[in-house]
Amino acid sequence: MIVFLSSAFSSKVLASSKNLEAKQNTILFAESRRNAKRICSQRGLNWSEVNYFESKNYFANICRQPNGKLMLIAGRISNPNQVLELPVEFNQGYLAVHGNRTFMVSDSSLSMAINGLVIKEEQIIYQGKSN
User: Fold this and answer.
1) Is the pLDDT assigned to residue 10 strictly greater than 50?
2) For residue 130, which of 85, 64, 65, 75 has the smallest C-alpha distance?
3) Are residues 64 and 123 in the same domain?
4) Distance between CA 15 and CA 10 in Å, rounded?
């Protein structure tokens, strides 16, 4: 009876460690994909990341340029090579305007409005502030 219990316990530990390993690999893969979209430093010398956001379908970088001004670099997660770059202002969230479109990013949501009417809003599922 004791042999059976110890055998069953070690099987559970083995299965549990395999699940943990798979989970860690999944987390590492997600972090690797996320880091590829954290692109402030790729924009030029002395550009730095202020904040990074992800929703289900979009990502948004808030970058500080060498002159101290903030820039929004955002795009679809499915196509990270096609991005929108706009100057941004900070006031209880980040706000960028492009013609009649307004892009807003806060700790809780990412949204787009046309002529003041919000047409798209998604909850932030990941946020990474720079150190």
Assistant:
1) no
2) 64
3) yes
4) 9
Q: Are residues 29 and 44 in the same domain?
A: no
| Overall domain count for the chain | 2
Is there a contact between 61 and 37 (Cβ–Cβ < 8 Å)? yes
Query: By residue range, what is the domain housing residue 19?
Result: 1-36
Extract the tokens encoding 130.
């720079």
Are residues 114 and 78 located together in one domain of the fold? Answer: yes
Phi, psi of 81 (to 5 degrees): -85, -15
Please state the length of the chain.
Answer: 131
Q: What is the pLDDT of residues 39-65, one digit of tens each?
A: 898 888 899 999 999 999 999 999 999
Tokens read off for 13: 């530990």
Map residue 55 onto helix, strand or coil.
Answer: coil
Query: Which two structure tokens, joined as six digits, stand for 105?
Result: 């990013």
Same domain, 24 and 87: no
